[in-house]
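Researcher: Go.
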Amino acid sequence: MRADLLVANAAFYAAFNAKDFGAMDALWARTAAVACVHPGWNALEGREQVMESWRGILGNAEQPRVFVGAESAHELGDVGYVLCREIVDGSALATTNLFTLEDGEWRMVHHHTSPVAL
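Model: Structure:
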């Protein structure tokens, strides 16, 4: 199942880099509570707020590509998380992506990214 978590995580970044809102929307949980913390933003709670943030980010033609690496997946029953490193426009970010099993598939419930102090 850890491999499935890494597949779900990769799908998140594929949607992000393709600026594909439909794919991003499909990755997020529909029945579980969701939240998101983008770098420098206040915490967003609720699917409507979170998806509206993604609509704005993905609709921004200037949004740089996100490179991801150093992924490690961890499963805790019906919950799993992936720790990874993002590189955005030359800046390193530490990231946690939290997933839950929903209808037999890993769906994102929380994305938290913050800058790494050098």
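Model: The first strand starts at residue 35 and ends at 37.
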